[in-house]
Design brief:
alpha/beta; TIM Barrel; about 30% helix; binds S-adenosylmethionine; disordered N terminus; binds iron/sulfur cluster; twelve-stranded mixed β-sheet
């Protein structure tokens, strides 16, 4: 389907969203310090959560009526959602068939990778910030490194290539180990991307002056590897700046959401686990689709409401602006 600004999810700045991130739960079995507090976070109540059928219905509206061609399931931790395999299977059966991927912390992936692959899952991004057991425990507050590494290996064995790894660096915790993480990924044929830490943690602990910047990551990696920028012209709306490592073919990516924002090329839209459309990670406004859905709206009405929701998308996230305010929902509840 060709997406025109009339039929697709166009905003007032000429961007058209075709990449939908769907949060399947706000719950998680880790407590990464840059994302969640140790305890005290309120969970969405069960009746507020979209059912599996409701998720598939909204995804289907996005794919068949709004030109969305990429679906990424995320959370919280999406592997905690019992109906995940069925949701993936029904999504990959849609026509036109969207690309379907998963962002996960990898815990439980070893058990589910084959079934997810059989359901049509195309790709997986696994979050892994360190390969050191003690540092992993310090960052995630849980002793689950071996489960994550097993999940990565299972995804690779199941043929979900390329297996991507997402890493966030925290000063004084794992920043100095970035080269060792890259070497591990090179050795295991995983594609590593570093993500700059963003102000999206529930406890509002982000500090611009202490976050590790893309420039620092590059400098640190360049001490041990030869990094060469790949053609920027092929980047398109992809957020990662990509570099070949030691002449290639392996690459490493850096997602500089804070220091080099890519809002002008953004093609994303998000759906929370409780059925709210968010036009940006940093949006302070959401549009409720669940109420209309449960009141019996038909697909055309849902599509129209979704299009309207996108019109208010701001040109940029404004993190550098002194008046920037963090969104009320943390990353774990928005869907990263
Ligand atoms: N639980 C899954 C996981 O960790 O991959 C999916 C949800 S998680 C919110 C999605 C991604 O957001 C992860 O790669 C995580 O590292 C990243 N993330 C979480 N909080 C972040 C923050 N404050 N800044 C940058 N990335 C963050
Ligand atoms: Fe859980 Fe992912 Fe947040 Fe870590 S980043 S606490 S794994 S939702």
């Amino acid at each position: 389907m060709t997406t025109t600004p009339q039929s697709g999810l166009a905003d007032n700045y000429g961007r058209v969203a075709t990449d939908l991130r769907v949060s399947l739960t706000d719950r998680c079995n880790l407590r990464c310090t840059y994302c969640m507090p140790e305890e005290g976070l309120d969970w969405l109540a069960k009746p507020e959560l979209l059912t599996d059928d409701e998720i598939v219905r909204l995804v289907s509206v996005a794919v068949t009526r709004l030109g969305v061609d990429e679906i990424r399931f995320t959370g919280g931790e999406p592997l905690l959602r019992r109906g995940l395999v069925g949701i993936v299977e029904r999504t990959t059966s849609l026509q036109p068939r969207p690309q379907v991927s998963l962002t996960t912390n990898g815990i439980g992936l070893a058990r589910q990778a084959e079934a997810l692959r059989a359901a049509g899952l195309d790709r997986v991004n696994v979050s892994l910030d360190t390969i050191r057991q003690d540092t992993f425990q310090q960052l995630t507050r849980r002793d689950r490194l071996n489960d994550v590494l097993a999940g990565l290996a299972a995804a690779h064995a199941a043929g979900m290539a390329p297996v991507k790894v997402n890493a966030v660096l925290m000063r004084g915790v794992n920043d100095e180990h970035a080269p060792e993480l890259l070497q591990y990924c090179l050795d295991h044929d995983y594609e590593l991307r570093f993500i700059e830490q963003m102000p999206l943690d529930a406890q509002h602990g982000w500090d611009r002056s202490t976050m590790i910047t893309a420039d620092e990551i590059l400098a640190r990696l360049s001490e041990q590897f030869t990094l060469t920028p790949t053609d920027a012209a092929t980047r398109g709306s992809a957020p990662a700046e990509s570099f070949t490592v030691n002449g290639g073919p392996a690459t490493v990516g850096i997602i500089a959401s804070v220091t080099r924002p890519f809002c002008g090329d953004c093609d994303r839209v998000r759906l929370t686990a409780d059925g709210q459309v968010r036009d940006c990670l940093f949006a302070r406004k959401e549009s409720d689709l669940r109420t209309a859905l449960r009141a019996g709206a038909d697909d055309d009405e849902l599509a129209a409401a979704w299009r309207t929701a996108m019109r208010g998308k701001l040109p940029g996230h404004g993190i550098a602006d002194p008046s920037f305010l963090q969104p009320v929902r943390p990353m774990s509840a928005i869907g990263g």
